[in-house]
Amino acid sequence: xxxxxxxxxxxxxxxxxxxxxxxxxxxxxxxxxxxxxxxxxxxxxxxxxxxxxxxxxxxxxxxxxxxxxxxxxxxxxxxxxxxxxxxxxxxxxxxxxxxxxxxxxxxxxxxxxxxxxxxxxxxxxxxxxxxxxxxxxxxxxxxxxxxxxxxxxxxxxxxxxxxxxxxxxxxxxxxxxxxxxxxxxxxxxxxxxxxxxxxxxxxxxxxxxxxxxxxxxxxxxxxx
Amino acid sequence: xxxxxxxxxxxxxxxxxxxxxxxxxxxxxxxxxxxxxxxxxxxxxxxxxxxxxxxxxxxxxxxxxxxxxxxxxxxxxxxxxxxxxxxxxxxxxxxxxxxxxxxxxxxxxxxxxxxxxxxxxxxxxxxxxxxxxxxxxxxxxxxxxxxxxxxxxxxxxxxxxxxxxxxxxxxxxxxxxxxxxxxxxxxxxxxxxxxxxxxxxxxxxxxxxxxxxxxxxxxxxxxxxxxxxxxxxxxxxxxxxxxxxxxxxxxxxxxxxxxxxxxxxxxxxxxxxxxxxxxxxxxxxxxxxxxxxxxxxxxxxxxxxxxxxxxxxxxxxx
Lengths: 224, 318
Hints:
Chain A has helices at about 25-40, 65-75, 100-110, 115-120, 215-224; strands spanning about 5, 10-15, 45-50, 55-60, 85-95, 125-130, 135-140, 155-160, 160-165, 170, 175-180, 180-185, 210-215. The mean pLDDT of chain A is about 95.
């Protein structure tokens, strides 16, 4: 399933699963990720799954590129290895104060805001990966008519909890960070909990997300 | 704990970016948490060796300007690593301290860490253990994700730094070391090297780049000749590692450092080799750097040599 293994610098394997972004390729990445994680190999310092790549960081005192590459190439993943998938429901408020880019999205997609939100909430989304900042999930796929580019100028600060879309993806800003996604709403739910050290992320790769719409009152109620 | 039994520092001035650091946390990239840990691992290692602490003991890292600390408690020793100017203020008077040398502190004494010289990071610790909480096996403070002791924030004035253990069998030691600098940063070509025009590839290795002020524990932004992308200014977002050099849409290099975002969508032109990372992070804004291309095999050997050199320094501690 891995097409090619290159080096990323002198202390990481760059495992290439292909160039397309789809759930089939990504599921393979995630299967490898969980499998290697379970092996608990000495000297592996990080595993970073993404849409179609898996990066394996290692301790240069323990491994060299060629020896570890050979080990990874010899790993066999059973095709019927089923991914564990959780369904997670996340409340989102699309009140004017939260839907920072709804007008821009209306203009770009040439759809009314109610249609945009109806389409957005009618689908389940697949979690391709988490990261950039702690806990941020990258979800997909949006319908064809819902796809648009990032903001031309990214925001210096996107509020924590913002739910954004770009191209075929949506995400949730688990922290206030700079960012350029089109913001449709905000969730009062905590996406990353550093006090829960065994499972700090609300959403993990392979999970299914169902967003549901709440009112501002409900939002404030949950926040309290 | 009764206050007279406590051993602690009170922070009179926090310094610019003062945090607890150790070797950092592993195996959390997949949830978006980077390694963190001491930026300059050699100076971290030398400090714990000088103080005869466990190799992964917490230390206090500072950047540019360090903290001014006042000590309360029974006699302890402290040491500073890096290229640092500091004063020790006691009843006997004020003396200038030297890095890589241990000094006695008595109740009421102060350490005023003025600045790092021609470098960015310095390290401070004691012959003992700071009272820190551990998050995923590390006390490193990651201010971006607010992970670590002190609620994941950098130190502020009036904070009290608890000492929970003092090593009484400590021997005062020192190291004659002036630090190690670097002119060329050695890199391995990146996975998107062919995204850039031939002339830009040439420029990347022939011309120099200036480190800008937009540099911190997350990354180092450079300016110099614009690097021309002839394929696509973005790639499908994928994992990053320490030392990766991405080229932004504007054509400028940005080097990922210890607190970097775990995923990125800019093409990777190169990655700094592990042997040069400690010296890279010590380069101050305004410095000019040149990149030099090395093979993977050479990078692996250079890392072993670098480690041998560090071990050699540790063996010279007397």
